[in-house]
Amino acid sequence: MPEITLSKSEFYDAFNRLFEHYSYVKGVSASQADKDLFGKFEETPSADDNIYLARWYKHIAAVEGLTLKSGSAPAEVSLDTVPFYHALNRILECDEHSKLTTTIASKLTPAPAEPTHPYLAKWVKSASSAKKDTPADDEDDDDDDFDPFDDEEPDPEAERIKEERLAAYKAKKAAKPKVIAKSSVLLDCKPWDDETDMAEMEEKIRAIQMTGLHWGASKLVPVGFGIRKLQIQCTIVDDEVSTDDLIEKICEFEDHVQSVDIAAFNKI
């Protein structure tokens, strides 16, 4: 299968935009495509720079039993073109004005076909047209404008206004509220047998308190042989609550809980 080589920034930016709109590479649950992409990372993405990518990475590690990596990311990453085209097409299908790194467009060889990737094909044509319409830098004109004997002092008033505008911009940027990524998690908590006190199990689980954790609705679901499992909803702040830590805390109630599985995980 043909491959495309991306810089680290192009790679991270593309998939951060994908996971801004979707929880998985394709479909509504984790698949081999997510495990394949997970294997392309040599480091755990930073939530400060790529919040949606970091959330996906930690979630896949949790649900698939994979290890978070702590190495150093290479300057370039090679990907199979077909799944990458599919990912880009999903981004643009959801947000046709997505500010994807335009340098990616020139690397898409062969060009995406409209029947299979219509949104991506349209974006590539648009990016190519914009590049052609941009006038090339005229180096000769730049040389003509340069005056080696120009000793003109900068205008103090202009410099003051420039500094004030820059300070105002930085203050406005600092005041902008940070995006808080949240997820809705549905947990299946299974008892040992039909004699387990399910009301007591739920009471113990709801007693777990963590910053960024909020419990929601619950219900008992028949499993078989008279046994019922507790299905309970919770909302978590991705940067504050690890699903691994939460499941570990629930499993500490070993007299009541046999196992805990993630039944559903969706970004809010």
Notes on the structure:
- With 268 residues, this protein is α+β, with helices and mostly antiparallel strands.
- 41% of the residues lie in helices and 20% in strands.
- The chain has nine helices and six strands, in the order E-H-H-H-E-H-H-H-H-E-H-E-E-H-E.
Number of helices: 9
Strand content: 15-25%
Low-confidence stretches: 136-142
Within the largest sheet, what's the order of strands? 4-5-3-6
Mean pLDDT: 83
**What is the strand tally?**
6
Straight-line N-to-C gap: 35 Å
Helicity level, as a percent range? Answer: 40-55%
SSE string: EHHHEHHHHEHEEHE
What summary fits the major beta sheet? 4 strands, antiparallel
Shape: globular
Radius of gyration, in angstroms, nearest whole number: 26 Å
Structural class: alpha+beta
